[in-house]
Amino acid sequence: MTIEALLSGTPVLGTHRGALPELITPDVGTLCDTVDDMIAAAESIHTRSPAACRAHAERHFTHLVMAREYARMYAHVLEHGAPPAGTPTLHAAV
């Protein structure tokens, strides 16, 4: 639902657990550690630009981008027998 929210222009609040740190950047949402952090972040989440949220999702998560990245990774695995070392997460690539 995170990517769908971003595509609709909705900023996202989440935790540092799971894949969210790879999906959410400060310009499109906030990652929190506690419920109190999330409550505080909810008060300012509206300051994120809906256009920035959508642009972020389009830049990183459309079907075309995802297919291109899968094809790139598969080609590397076929050629080298393993995924690229140190494959960057979204935060490292941004």
Keywords:
single chain; 94 residues; mainly alpha; two-stranded parallel ribbon; 6 helices
Topology, element by element:
Blueprint: H1 2-7, E1 12-15, H2 20-23, E2 29-32, H3 35-42, H4 50-61, H5 63-80, H6 90-93
Parallel strand pairs: 1-2
Helix pairs in contact: 4-5
Please provide a written account of the structure.
This protein is mostly helical and 94 residues long. The protein has one domain (2-93). 55% of the residues lie in helices and 9% in strands. It is built from 6 helices and 2 strands, in the order H-E-H-E-H-H-H-H. It has helices at residues 2-7, 20-23, 35-42, 50-61, 63-80, 90-93, and strands at 12-15, 29-32. A two-stranded parallel sheet has the order 1-2. Helix 4 packs parallel to helix 5.
Mean of residue pLDDT values: 90
Q: What is the helix tally?
A: 6
Question: SSE string, helix = H, strand = E?
Answer: HEHEHHHH
Beta-strand content: 5-15%
- The number of distinct β-strands equals 2
Largest sheet: 2 strands, parallel
Strand adjacency order, main sheet: 1-2
Low-confidence stretches: none
Which secondary-structure class do the elements indicate?
A: mainly alpha
Tally of structural domains: 1
Please estimate the helix content.
Answer: 55-70%
- Shape descriptor: elongated
> Distance between termini?
21 Å
Radius of gyration: 15 Å
In short:
By secondary structure, this protein is mostly helical.
